[in-house]
Design a protein that fits this description.
The chain is mainly α. The protein has nine helices and no strands. The chain has a single domain (5-124), classed as Cytochrome Bc1 Complex, Chain D, domain 2 (Orthogonal Bundle), CATH 1.10.760. It has helices at 5-18, 22-30, 32-35, 51-55, 60-66, 68-71, 77-92, 102-109, 116-124. The structure holds heme C (HEC). The site of heme C (HEC) has 22 residues, from α3, α4, α6, α7 and α9.
């Protein structure tokens, strides 16, 4: 049986109430519906375990902010920057260097990717 939307929402809200940081709270409310609470994704949403694979490719830094789910999230530039610093550290064990700032996020999210799948493939293609 599929869990009902109300059930999933209740779970997300209950988890958000226990989140111990803004970043975790923002993740639960804005991202986990598609990416899942543990970041594992689904057959159409890549697992965040794959962030490590992308981390050292030139362009990953820009790609991570320009994917539509991040770029168009209902979060301020400051909150999105903090969320992405937290997310990258959580899944690659290394925070972005330098950390994202609100100004960089504002510049990048103004140009959301039209074809993120193609961009991801391009990043992983041998150079
Ligand atoms: C409506 C569903 C949805 C929501 C909500 C969503 N995403 Fe995504 N995300 C996707 C999909 C689908 C992809 C694969 C690329 C694409 O088609 O956009 C993706 C890809 C990504 C990637 C690239 C991962 C990779 O390995 O290529 C990042 C980073 C990301 N999302 C961050 C976020 C963040 C941060 C949030 C919350 C602020 C968020 N997303 C919210 C659906 C979503």
């Amino acid at each position: 049986m599929k869990p009902s939307i109300a059930c999933v929402l209740a779970l997300v809200l209950a988890s958000a109430a226990h989140a111990d940081s803004y970043e975790e709270h923002d993740y639960l409310l804005s991202c986990s519906g598609c990416h899942r609470i543990d970041g594992g994704g689904s057959n159409v949403v890549p697992s965040f375990e794959g962030l490590s694979e992308l981390a050292d490719t030139p362009g990953a830094r820009e790609y991570w902010i320009r994917v539509p789910g991040a770029a168009q999230a209902p979060l301020s530039d400051q909150r999105l920057a903090a969320l992405m610093n937290w997310l990258v550290k959580r899944f690659t064990a290394k925070a972005p260097e330098p950390l994202y700032t609100a100004a960089e996020v504002a510049r990048l999210r103004a140009k959301p990717l039209r074809d993120p799948i193609a961009e991801r493939r391009r990043l992983l293609a041998p150079h």
